[in-house]
Amino acid sequence: MTAPTPPALPFRDPHLPFAKRVDDLMSRLTLDERTAFLHQFAPAVERLGIAAFRTGQEALHGVAWMGPATVFPQAVGLGATWNDDLVRRVGEAVSKEVRAMRARDERVGLNVWAPTVNLLRHPLWGRGEEGYSEDPKLTSAIATAYTRGLRGEHPTYWRTAPVLKHWLAHNNETDRDTCSSSVRPRVLNEYDLRAFRETVEAGSVAGVMPAYNLVNGRPNHVSPYLESHLRAWTEDDLLVCSDAGAPSNLVDSEHYFDTHEEATAAALRAGVDSFTDHGTDSSKIVARVRGALDEGLLTEADVDAAVRRQLSVRFRLGEFDPEHDPHSDTTAFDTPEHRALAREAAEQAVVLLKNDGVLPLAEGTRVAVVGLLADECKLDWYSGTLIHRSTPLEGLYERFGAEQVSFAEGVDRVRLRTSAGTFLHVPPSDDSADEARGAEGALDPALLAGRTDLPPLTTDADGTELALVDWGDGVLTLRAPDGRYLSVAEDGRLRASADQPGGWVVQETFRLEPHGNGHLLRHLGTGRHVQVAADVVKVAAPDALAGDETPEVFELVVTERGEDAVTRAAAAADVVVVVAGNDPHINGRETEDRTTLRLPAHQERLLRAARAANPATVLALVSAYPYAVDAEVLPAVLWTAHGGQAAGTALARVLAGDVSPAGRLPQTWYADDADLPDLLDYDVIGSRQTYLYFEGTPLFPFGHGLSYASFAYADLAARAGDGKVSVSFTVTNTGSVTADEVAQLYVRAENPSVPRPRRELLAHRRLTLPPGATAEVSFELPLSALAFWDVAHDRWRLEPGPYALLVGASSEDVRLTATVSPDGEPAAPRPVRERGLEAAGFDEQSGTEIVDRTKAVGDAVTPVAGRAGELLFRDCDFGTGVTGVTVTVAGGEGTVEIALDGGPAAVLPRPAPGSEPYDYTELDAPLIAEGVHDLRIRLRGALRLAHVGFSG
Question: I need a surface site. Which of 346, 518, 578, 589 has the fewest CB within 10 A?
Answer without folding.
Answer: 518
